[in-house]
Each structure stands twice: as C-alpha cells, then as structure tokens.
Design brief:
single chain; alpha/beta; Rossmann fold; 9 helices; about 10% strand; binds thymidine-5'-phosphate
C-alpha cells in the first residue's frame, strides 16, 4: 500500500447526516474506492474506533440509560472522541493516511446543540476539547428529509438505539441544525442530497474528493483512478 510519506500530513474526511441518511454506506464506499486506488486509508466511526471509545459508545446508545443528562451525553461523546483522536487519528494523519470518519464534532453540534438545545457556545468549547483542536479537511453532509429517514428505519429490521428512539422531533431539529452548520462553513462542507441512488451519491463524493485533493491523490496513487 502506498502512502504519501511522513513528511506530509494525511487528509481527514468526515461524513455527517441524520440517522438512516445513508452516510455510513457512503463512508464505506469511499474507503473501498481509496483502497482500490492504492491510497492508504482508514475508516473509523465516532463514537467508536478504539477499545475505550467503543465502551463509551455502548453506554451512550444503551436504551436502558433513559435518565442520561444531556450534559453527561455531551461529555461522553467528547470523551469517546478525544480517545479516538489521540489513539488513532493523529498517528494515521502523521503517517500520511486518509482518515475517513463516520461522524465527528458536527454531530455533536447538530444532536446535542440543536437536537437537545444545549447552549451552542458551550457545545463549541466542548467540541474543541473532544477533538483536541482537530478540524476536518472535508465534510460530506448527506442531506435527507427526516420523514424519509424514519421510514427507512422502520423498514430495516434493526432495533433502534437510545438516540434513534428519541423520535422525529429530535431528528427534525438535528436536520435543521446540520443545514445551519454547513452554511457557516461552505469551504469545508459538501452537502449532497441523500434522496438519490447509492451509486449516484458515491460518484458525486468521489469526484469532489479527487478535485479537492488533486495533488494529494496523484501523489498517493501515482496512476489513473480505478
Ligand atoms: P451512528 O448511528 O452514526 O453510529 O451514531 C450513533 C448515534 O449517536 C446517532 O444517533 C447520532 C448520535 N451522536 C450524537 O448524538 N452526538 C455525537 O457527537 C455523535 C458522534 C453521535
């Protein structure tokens, strides 16, 4: 596997969207595409990706924890993230890899800030700590109407976790929150309609990735794209 070497930092790409928006499928497809092109990359999920963060994830998503304070929820997401950033993301970026993360701190702004109505300034401060100051180079927001997303959830046989069980009103606030967050940082965000064929979305994402990181991509692969 080729990577661009220790002297240059890798690229940090995140995927965002409400539950059942299709962002995880797209994160995986981008990862596979990079692998097929010989670009050294890693795929992570937030919360998760490390032993400790996965344990925190279990606490966060456990339906039995219905009494969880939104402030505790905020800090647990940040704790899981800080562990992942330090243990996994920083070393991978220092190694010149492309790090793809299924969710990052924009999820906290959308869910805990807009969804749970916590003070946005405090959420921002918490996000700086939880991400240890790391900012994504590129963020894909898969934009899907919450009603469509809820129908998708109903159709899948999987049981809802604690966050998914919170209902349509939370999802609607999260959806609006994401749009506001993306509008504030148009340079970093690519907003893509999630109401399209998986393959169509995949192609859009791949083209945006290649255009944004053209020099990096050609350096990492040294050949035509596959
Ligand atoms: P996932 O379904 O993408 O794996 O994410 C798990 C759930 O956690 C999802 O419902 C969104 C929620 N979440 C937050 O509420 N705040 C956060 O900061 C993150 C990363 C996820």
């Amino acid at each position: 596997m080729i990577n661009v070497g220790k002297e240059s930092r890798g690229k940090f790409v995140t995927f965002e969207g409400i539950d059942a928006s299709g962002k995880s499928v797209q994160a995986k497809l981008l990862y596979q595409r990079l692998q097929n092109n010989g670009v050294d990359s890693v795929l992570l999920r937030d919360p998760g990706a490390t032993r400790i963060s996965e344990r925190v994830r279990d606490i966060l998503l456990d339906n039995a924890h219905e009494e969880m304070s939104p402030w505790a929820e905020l800090l647990l997401y940040e704790a899981a993230r800080a562990q992942m950033v330090e243990e996994t993301i920083f070393p991978a970026l220092a190694d010149g890899k492309v790090v793809i993360c299924d969710r990052f701190y924009d999820s906290t702004t959308a869910y805990q800030g807009y969804g749970r109505s916590l003070d946005l300034n405090l959420v921002k401060q918490a996000n700086t700590i939880g991400s240890i100051g790391l900012v994504p180079d590129l963020t894909f927001l898969i934009d899907l109407d919450p009603h469509v997303a809820i129908e998708r959830m109903k159709k899948s046989n999987r049981a809802n976790d604690r966050m998914e069980s919170a209902g349509i009103e939370l999802q609607k606030r999260v959806f609006d929150g994401y749009r506001k967050v993306a509008a504030l940082e148009p340079e970093r965000f690519s907003v893509i309609s999630g109401d399209q064929e998986i393959k169509v979305i995949e192609k859009i994402i791949w083209n945006i990735f290649k255009n944004k990181f053209e020099w990096f991509f050609s350096l990492a692969t040294g050949k035509e794209d596959r």
